[in-house]
Known about the structure:
Elements: H1 2-8, H2 10-19, E1 48-52, E2 55-62, E3 67-71, E4 93-97, H3 114-127, E5 133-139, H4 141-151, E6 156-164, H5 172-177, H6 181-190, H7 195-202, H8 205-213, H9 221-228, H10 238-245, H11 254-269, E7 274-281, H12 287-296, E8 300-308, H13 317-331
Parallel strand pairs: 3-4, 3-5, 5-6, 6-7, 7-8
Antiparallel strand pairs: 1-2, 2-4
Amino acid sequence: xxxxxxxxxxxxxxxxxxxxxxxxxxxxxxxxxxxxxxxxxxxxxxxxxxxxxxxxxxxxxxxxxxxxxxxxxxxxxxxxxxxxxxxxxxxxxxxxxxxxxxxxxxxxxxxxxxxxxxxxxxxxxxxxxxxxxxxxxxxxxxxxxxxxxxxxxxxxxxxxxxxxxxxxxxxxxxxxxxxxxxxxxxxxxxxxxxxxxxxxxxxxxxxxxxxxxxxxxxxxxxxxxxxxxxxxxxxxxxxxxxxxxxxxxxxxxxxxxxxxxxxxxxxxxxxxxxxxxxxxxxxxxxxxxxxxxxxxxxxxxxxxxxxxxxxxxxxxxxxxxxxxxxxxxxxx
Length: 332
């Protein structure tokens, strides 16, 4: 697999991420750094299920107080947040959803477009009657959450983002302007009509290559198996295959270019408090990009949480949790 991926640019992407420079001395150190607590592979929270649009969606629901909704991206699940949630639950209700077709949620016969994922997420929020939300999003969850906020602004109190698939990183033409050519090459490869299905459906590259390549520490067998569990067959990997095809590259799909414009308008104009947590070297949000976000988003705090690539919850869960908890207290 590795030789094929090198030819398609993914190995270059991961190599570029790992070789990026640390933030310059002017970059802030983590506001609440890790104390070295070990990272657990065990999901201690019990999954719950609710019917949404005729399918079951799985979620975690812990604690009491103002509601914090955690939304993962591709190819993860609520499992991604397992070591972050304990920092929130002493003062807040933490809900972490498995997006439709992912985690322990059902896999209905749908296209799994960004619009499909949004409709199920919005219906999930309505079904649980969640109000005055604090949203926390990562990867495509970092695109879905500001989209929900843009369309339901009165129901959103604040939003926190980590490595989000959102404006201004997307559309991909913006990343090219930021010097992130490797990302464009890799995700363009995933959209190739012949190689995309081989890599993402047959070889499960999102889980087997992209996921561990986006974490600095080695993921344990238990952790990898937890991420593999929802995708045992090529047919089951359709959601993970579709997400890369939803990235707007060279104006396509046009419907998602419009979505990024909608997200960008909300992030740059809305008064709700925003938090961006970034790592070094990062992937979608490098230290340099974080500085751009600090001057682009309205009413935003941008905090550096230490070393990490894309799945930063697997490298820095405690620092993320402590910064998130501190920010939540500041919203009171």
